[in-house]
Amino acid sequence: MTSPPDKLDGKYGIDEIKAHVAKKRVLIVAGEASGDQYGAELMREVAALSPDTLFFGVGGSKMRDAGLLALVRSEEITVVGLVEVVKHLKTIKGALDLLKESMRALKPDLIVLIDFPDFNFRVADAAVKLGKDGGKMPIFYYISPQVWAWRRGRVKTIARFADKMVVIFPFEVNIYREAGVDVEFLGHPLMDVVAGVERRLKGGGDAKVGGGKPNVALLPGSRRSEIERHLSHLLGASEIIKRKYPDASFTIPLAPTLEMEDVAPYLEDTSLNVAVVKDSFHRVVRGADIAIVSSGTATIETALMGTPMVVVYRLNYLTYMIARLLVRVDYIAMVNLVAKKRVVPELIQSDVNAENIARHVISILSDDAVMKRMREDLSEVRRRIGKPGASARVAERIMNFL
């Protein structure tokens, strides 16, 4: 599989995709930035086993770089929160209609759905209905929605349509197995990413300074809405930390889904000299003494790099109030969920403010014993996540359907 020619909008029409000669066609759908990353890795591994496989569907820049012929760019339909979804319903419906049309016209040999449940469940439902008329399209679901946190009924929904389920956390296996789903844990794809980074940065990269000159990584999130809710608080905390540690340095490794103009207005309101870098997440986090991280995949990635952290998250108020009634977990940080204990501090909603964040960061930086214990706990989280090679193992399972 080779990368498609450049297109200004990054999208292809159904007829354009149909014109591509391919031994097998796979409809693949990923929404979040993390799903885009995992999808790209998976596509490359499948291509190594079956070079004539064509991927089309929904993905971000990384999947498009890996050869995806995108009917829809994931950036168009990825939103967080119940209120935000309502604002984008027309766009989301249009994307679903286009995918349904593509299934009829292109008849994929396999459908690969990566997390993104609110959208992907509708894709699966359409595939099942179309399959009753024109031949079944197998569905391979990769990466579980957070059913252990809320909406446990989704397990039964997945059991109805998934021919194969691959999860990325070991504790998820029994949840699906009890529902009769053909499920496996094959490791976490981030281990492949981190192992590659460690090879590239071996003997190099930014050194952790510690002491009175700490490097602090600021990770406010990968979406504009997260920047709006988090960045001012992270910068306020950084100003307090700077007063305690005058030689501290602060860096924002900008997510690939964001541009400099998304963070620039916030930086204008601070006297701090904050470095903003693109495509340097792992280098920055690996070199940081501590990170302030928006809850999500970045917490696991930071844990795998062995960097202590404070986790924060704020939602739209209405979304948060609804979530309070539905969510049934003790922690929001995936690191703590995997460890089954509070390894890193986590601040939610109104607790996310400059003073609270700074207090936790300073308490960690100023206590060597706390720092040492946190690094040991993060090392145990890494052990539980599994060994590198997850994407290759998932690709092998996909080949069973092609």
From TrEMBL:
Q: Does the keyword Nucleotide-binding apply?
A: no
Cite a GO CC annotation.
membrane
Under the heading InterPro entries, the entry gives:
Glyco_trans_19
Pathway given in the UniProt record: Bacterial outer membrane biogenesis; LPS lipid A biosynthesis
Query: Any idea of its EC number?
Result: 2.4.1.182
**Biological process according to GO:** lipid A biosynthetic process
Q: Alphabetically list the UniProt keywords.
A: Glycosyltransferase, Lipid A biosynthesis, Lipid biosynthesis, Lipid metabolism, Transferase
Q: Does the entry feature the keyword Lipid metabolism, yes or no?
A: yes
HAMAP family reported in the protein's UniProt record: LpxB
Explain the purpose of this protein. Answer: Condensation of UDP-2,3-diacylglucosamine and 2,3-diacylglucosamine-1-phosphate to form lipid A disaccharide, a precursor of lipid A, a phosphorylated glycolipid that anchors the lipopolysaccharide to the outer membrane of the cell.
Protein family membership = Belongs to the LpxB family.
Q: What is this protein called?
A: Lipid-A-disaccharide synthase
